[in-house]
Here is the input.
Amino acid sequence: MRKLLERSSQRIINILDVFVTQEGWITIGELSELVDAGVRTISNDVGIIKKRWGAELNIEVSTKWGIKLHNQNVATIGNVFKQIFNESIALKWLEEIFFFPGKRIEFYEDRLFVSRSTLIRTLPDLNKYLNTIGMEIKRINNQYNVIGNSEMHLRQLFSGFLLELHGLNLKKRELDVDLSLLKKILHQTLMKNLEPEETSFIFNNELFVVYYSMYYLVSLVRENQGFSDLRYNNSSSYADTVIEDDELGRLKVFFPNITSDSIQPISGFILSQYIGWDNIDEKWLVENETGLFYQRIFNGMRLLLNEEMHEKLEFMLRSLYLAQKFRPFSNSTLFDRIYYFSMTLKQYNFSLYQLFETNLNIFSKKTEMDMSGRIYDLLYWSSLILPEINHNRKPMRLLVISDFGVNHAHFIARYMENYFKNDVSDLTVDVGDYPEVLREGSFDHYHIIVTTISHLSIDHNNIVLINDYPTEANMFDLYRASHSVR
Here is the structure.
């Protein structure tokens, strides 16, 4: 959906994308290559960013070094993105058509304070994007509606879209619905159809509750407008919806056209992501492959998992499988914090990312469901359930070379072993006999060489210089070097 923004806005967002994970300084030339735009254009864009958000993002610009973003907080950058999104005519018009379908173009001109020609020019770009996901804006008798091949997929799109623009605050749309009521209906329905531990897992994760609350709101808007699709994957068969007459009455204040039948497919679609198996064979296959997935992941890791942790991790992966099956589009359409979380994880712990990616590919082949797009969700939720996995990295082999005597080298070796004992599942620290060790042929079988000797005359791309007694700065250098091991 970012493609609907003006080109200048797209470039600014792409520049900020680079800054999210960029460490240190970056030159205008390097930035122009990464963003694929001219140096002068990028320089102008950086000027705009600094002028509008320089204080908020703490941007430093140097003629010698380039640009450095001191505030890389993803939430702060997300707020900048939100400002840009809310300035887009295309996105604002799409939102207006969603809430006010079937209106003539004059209506939208007045709502958006733009000319008719601007809206007419915008429509082809809107439909070009929407057509890629099976949707379009239809104009019949100069009346505009957004429709899709799948009503449920359309609701998913707008759930993510509206959350990223406004959060759950839709008061400006006069939808001051009591969110606790929606959560109560959802909780009652989940409790009736899932195990208590599964419902607890869902409700203890705010992102699930927020997304499903917005999905309920979006669906109620569509149902109230007369757009309904009870046939979608027979989703209503999954649900035994729990809603009392007084609860329905409170919803009808805002959505007068809905009935209890309107609620059933909404709950059914949500439940399909937890119990939406086609048959028992599919369920058994996925459960078996889920167990094998985590068996491969934790093979060799020095982690003791209790039964509760295993159940949470396996429930999460099964849910991601069903989510991919029933909602193949990402929740996020504009700014995905889960993606940035996982990309930062990849930058600092590549071996863990690679381990999950490799085994997710195996899972995909075995289940015949392409899960590659769920790698970011998998890493994020696995990290939240079991933070310890981020401190277990691939086996490493270190060589210590000291010019302060062999006993000192053994001291450094034990120091290294103690430093990494909780982080590396299989660590080997060798001690080199200086200076004889320098005459060895190749050192490629070592991941890191730790030494007290500056300008060590050996060929290796990961040498860490330390003091006789390692300082905090030395250990930070070693920490960074360990994360570069792939």
Residues 280-391 form one domain. Strands lie at 59-62, 66-69, 103-104, 135-140, 143-148, 396-401, 427-431, 448-451, 463-465. Confidence is low (pLDDT under 50) at residues 232-236. The CA atoms of residues 214 and 462 lie 49 Å apart.
